[in-house]
Structures are given as C-alpha cells and as structure tokens.
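Model it.
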Amino acid sequence: MKKNIYDILILIFACFLVAFGTYFFLAPCNIAAGGISGAAIIVNSIFPSIPIGLFMMFVEIFLFIIGIIIIGPVFGGKTIFCSFSISGMILVMQKVYPVVKPFSKDTLMQLIFGILICGAGMGIVFNKNASTGGTDIIGKIINKYTKISIGKCVLIPDIIVVTAASIVFGIDKGMYSILGILLNATIIDRVILTLNTYKHVAIISSNGTDIKNYIVDVLDRSATIYYAKGAYKNNDNEVITTVLNRKEFLKLKEYIVKVDDRAFITVNEVNEVLGEGFSSIL
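Modeled.
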C-alpha cells in the first residue's frame, strides 16, 4: 500500500513536469515537439477555440484503449491516470494563466528548457511502466515488440507530428521541432538509465557477519558470499557481494563505517539488473 501511494505521488510529479514544460515553454512559441501535446499545439494554432488540454483528452481516450488491449490493464490504468492528469493540469493552467508569453525571446532557449522539463517527466513515467498517453502509447507498443529503447520508439510517431508542424508553422519552427524530438528521445533514455543504475558492491571485512545481517535484515536485499585468498598476507577472506540502489548503498556505507572503518569495499555501477527484487527477466 505504501509503495502504491509512493508510485502515485511520483507519477503526479512527473505529470506536472510534462504539463508545465508544455504549457509554459513549448506552447507559447508554437513548438510542436512531437506527441499529442505537439499535435494539440498545432490544432490550437489553427482552431484557437479548441483548448490544448481538451484536444489531448479526446485523442488519448482512443489511444489508451489500444494500449490496454495490446500492453495490458496495469499499463493502461497508469496511462489513463497520467494522460488525464496532464490534460487536467494544462486545463487548470489555462484557466489560471489564460495568456502566456514566452519567458525568453530566444526560441531555442524556450525549446531546450521545455524539452528538459518534459523529457524528465516522461522518463519518470516510462520507468514506472506507464506512459503520458497519446503517441507515447504507440512508442511503448513498438518498444514491446522490437526492444528498441523507449526514447527511440517515441521518436518514430513524433516524426509525423514534426512534419505537420513544419507545414503549419513553417520550416524554421519545424527545424526547432526536429531538434526538440531528438533531444526529448535522448533525455527520456538518459533519465530511465539513471533511475535504473545500481551499485554492485564487494566487501571484505573482519565484521562480515554483522554486515551480512544488515544487508538481509535491514536493507531487505540478498547477498552472495565467496572466499578468496589475499596475495599480500596469503590469508583467506570472506567476500560479500550484493546489488543495491543508490539510497541503499549510502545506508550500507554508513553502517560499514560504524562497524569496521578498515573494511575493503569495491563498487561498480550496473545499468540493468534482472531477477527477483528487481526488473522482470521477461
């Protein structure tokens, strides 16, 4: 229950990032950097009476049904929550700030900051096995069957939106949009990679029993033990190895300092861990 609440709060935060970046940075400059939000900006520029958030809601209803059928109800449920959250947040922003001017006269700066904010939010959402709706669902479906990175998969349908942006807003805006989707794909993959980076830790300590118990009982992680002979003193050593996330590693390091400040520790970063307690191997 506690984990579910935490996941919901994380998704709400990620949705806010996407909504904020879209409405305050991309939309004022007519930068349609892919996705349904980009399509909504195009439609809104042609038909100002159609709100960006409302257009996004209607299109997302259609696409999330496809997502539920192909990817599954868990993904579909999370996607519904995220897509309507983003649309709703943008509608609220439109009510509170109906006229939004660009923060900067430099369109490139608006693009960079908008994509940085949106891409970070989208990366967090994808990492929680959800999507922000719209064309991201198409990207997720492509990812499921091809195993291409999610950032590159999102790039595929975005090309269509960018092409439309070039026609509606002109080649200059189109070029900004192309830069935007390339940057967005890179940021999504980078955020997911960062969130899934773990520490592979090997420990040699005279107080190995306490350290093992701390890993298993307090951190709720498993460990592997093997024995090695030291070349300097020719003595037998117990080597404890485990895989932890960043937060768990910091806790372990603090504990080791307390029980054995002469312990020998080696740490390597791993970008993917599959199996029990981590990502599914399927």
